[in-house]
Every structure is written in structure tokens, then in C-alpha cells.
Amino acid sequence: MSTKDYLEKDYYAVLGVPKSATAEEIKKAYRKLARQYHPDANPGDSGNSESTAKFKEVSEAYDVLSDTKRRKEYDEARTLFGSGLGGYAGAGGAPRGGGFPFDFGDLFGGTGQQPGAGDRIGDIFGGLFNRGGAGRTGGTTARARRGQDIESEVTLSFTEAVEGATVSLRLTSSSACTVCSGTGAKAGTTPRVCPTCEGTGAASRNLGNFAFSEPCRDCKGRGLLVDDPCPVCEGSGRGKSTRTIQARIPAGVGDGQRIKLKAKGAPGENGGPAGDLYVQIHVKPHAVFGRSGENLTITVPVTFAEAALGAEIKVPILKGMPVTLRIPEGTPNGRTFRVRGRGVTRKDGTKGDLLATVEVLVPQRLDDKARGALEDFRDATAGGDPRAELIQQARSE
Ligand SMILES: [Zn+2]
Ligand SMILES: [Zn+2]
Fold first, then answer.
1. What is the DSSP letter of 298?
2. What protein residues have CB closer than 5 angstroms to ion ligand 1?
3. Are 250 and 347 in contact (CB under 8 A)?
4. Are residues 279 and 307 in the same domain?
5. Is the domain of 40 the same as that of 96?
6. Which range, of 13-17, 49-53, 352-356, averages the lowest pLDDT?
7. Ligand 1 centroid to 34 CA: how many Å?
8. What is the distance in A from the centroid of ligand 2 to the CA of 72?
9. DSSP designation for 263
10. Global pTM?
11. Chain centre to alpha carbon of residue 84
12. Domain span at residue 316?
């Protein structure tokens, strides 16, 4: 059993008991599982079966959790490093307290190291270590490192979102402080090797039979101490850099969408690739047009006579002269017509449609001639009551 076993194996889960379980509860859980998976209870077992493996696992968990001292060590180990290797590699990636994120990969032979989990001190102080001879295992040479991913946002007009646009984006990213070149030390001074950890950035801590490595407390895992901090970055070695880039936003983006522009993030270090840029899109609404996926929408008013008799009407499009739409005789209110190819540009360059919905207008003011004509119309159509069926249906329920 190794330190790594302690971090990788959840003995409580194996026995199916909570972390707060009493010795009695652990014993009970173990007995039940042991009976279930014992080789004697599984005749014909060749020794390689699932139940045998399970039996071993259960026994191992019980060995540790039934021994008060070992259980304490186990609990402490897992509290110290979180549960599981992924857990502490992740925790190491987040910069804290102005120090450099610590790379636990070095301590455990690279196990669980995640790509981009964080800066390695060796990247930045590689040269220094080599000259001073205070090397440490791995990471002492300048390694290529991928640039940071950056978040940004942009507000587009409705038309820009539909057609695509080139926009200027001001990006702020963290990079090595330009004043001290990332050393964190005031001009004319150099950081010194931390005497506590002798530059390794790691400290040992003994827990019974096990020795754990954790970031050195004195140098916060940097391996170096700065006596006269750089006034600009206050010793952190990190600075902010701002730059403006031109970015092409593709046609057809929608409000609330987040798009990824590959390699438009922070530049890489030592020849590493640039990070990606994520842009949160906001789109201003249009006075006339709406969006429905790749289609544009519009509501077009028509007169009662146009709807009843049929007509050719002009419909505006987003860019260019209005198009003519023929609406047939007897068009009901709310019917939608499709004007092909006048919508949003798709990824392949083709376009969606314009969906034109007619809205039949009721005249608000009538002159004598129009009133007379409508009264004649009413008399001519007096035969049919449009509500007759409705009233009948309402009664029959
Ligand atoms: Zn600085
Ligand atoms: Zn130290």
C-alpha cells in the first residue's frame, strides 16, 4: 500500500459506509461483504473472478479502516490532498496568494498531471536554476507553454450578427511582469533560493509511516524567496497586458452565444501555441426583423381587401430593395409566407429564409364611400353566421 493507494482508493465507498461510520458499523459492513464475496461462497471461482477481486478490495479497505491509527493517517492524507489525484492536480492549477500555482506532477512522477494545469516555476526560472545549479527534478529547462484562454464579449447590431462582422476587441491577459521579467524581484536584485526547501518548492510532512510532499510554506512552492519585491507586480512576477485585436465574428451568430476563436487568446511562452479566445455575443434587437434560428421573421400588415381578394405586396428585406410577395385570395390573418434565401447566412454560405407573417388590419376610420361599400359587403354576405357552429359546439359538450 502506498501514498498513492491512499489517495486513489475510497475505502469508505468500498465498504459502503459514511466517513463518520463507527468501528462497529465498519465491522458490520465488512462482515456482510466478506460473506458475499468470500471464495468459499463462490464455488467454481478460479481465483481471477470479479468476486475474488472484490473480496481483496473489501479486505484491504477493512485492514485500514479497522485500525484506528491507520484510519487516522488515511483520513488525514485524503483531507490534505483532496480525494483522488485529479482533485489535487486541479487545486494546484489555481493561482493563489500571488504565488505560482504548484505543479504536483513533479512530486508524484507526473501522475494525474493535467494539461494546462498551471505554470511551472521551472518555465520562468529555468535559466536561473541552471546557472545557480540548484536544479530540481524536471521542469528546469524553458518549456514551451500554451498561452492562456481569454474571455471577452462584444455587442453586435442585428445586421452584423446576421452577416458576420470584423470587430476590435481589447483583451487583457496575465503574463510575466514586464518590469521584473517575471522574477518578482526589484530591479537590480535577484530572488534567492528558499533555504527551507532548498529550491525544490516542496516540503515533506510525515504522517506515521507515510511521508507526503506539499508546497513549501515559506516560498509557497516557488522554490525562491524575494527580499526586495518588484514594485509593479508586488513580487508576484505576474503582470497584466492589454492588446487590441481584430476578430472576425462569423455570420449567423445569435444573442447569448459564446463563440471560440482558436489561437486568438494569450500568446504562448517559449514557442508554445497561443490560447483560445472565447467571445460572448450580445445582439441588439432590430426594429422590424426578428430571428428564428437561420430564418429572419417579419410581420407585414395587409388590408382586409388585400387578404380577401389576393394581392401583390412589397416586403422589406434586411439588405437591398424590397421583394414582391404574392398573397392568394382568401389569405387568413396570421398566415406565414416564406421568401427563400433572404434569411441568415449559414456556415456553408447558403442562406435561410425570410418568414413573412401577414397581419390583417381593421380600418380605424371610414369615409362615407368606404362605409357605404362595407355596408353593401355586409348585406351581400348576410347569409352566413360565422359563429353558428361555435355556439352549437359549446352546447353539445
Ligand atoms: Zn514585477
Ligand atoms: Zn521553499
1. E
2. 177, 179-180, 230, 232-233
3. yes
4. no
5. yes
6. 49-53
7. 60
8. 27
9. T
10. 0.50
11. 22
12. 290-380
pLDDT (tens digit per residue) in 299-319: 999 999 999 999 999 999 999
In a domain, 197, yes or no: no
**CATH number of residue 372's parent domain:** 2.60.260.20
Instruction: Give dist(CA 285, CA 296) in Å, integer.
Output: 12
pLDDT of residue 134: 36
Report the separation in Å between the CA atom of 214 and the middle of ligand 1, taken as the mean of its atom positions: 26
Joined grid coordinates for residue 385: 353566421
8 A C-beta contact, residue 121 and residue 201: yes
Candidates 127, 121, 79, 124; CA nearest to 104 is 121
pLDDT tens track for 335-348: 999 999 999 988 88
Q: How far is CA 219 from CA 121, 137, 189, 206, 300, in A?
A: 12, 18, 17, 19, 70
Amino acid 166: pLDDT: 95
Residue ranges for the known binding site are 177, 180, 194, 197, 216, 219, 230, 233
Number of folded domains that form the chain: 3
Instruction: Please report whether residue 397 resides in a domain.
Output: no
295 assigned to some structural domain: yes
* Range among 60-64, 230-234, 287-291 rated most confident: 287-291
On whether residue 132 sits in a domain, the answer given is no
Per the annotation, binding residues for Zn(2+) are 177, 180, 194, 197, 216, 219, 230, 233
* Backbone dihedral angles phi then psi of residue 287, each to the nearest 5 degrees: -70, -30
Cα 116 to Cα 138, 171, 256, 343, distances in angstroms: 16, 20, 27, 41
Between CA 65 and CA 6 the distance in angstroms is 11
* Burial grade of 100 (CB within 10 A; 0-12, 13-18, 19 or more): buried
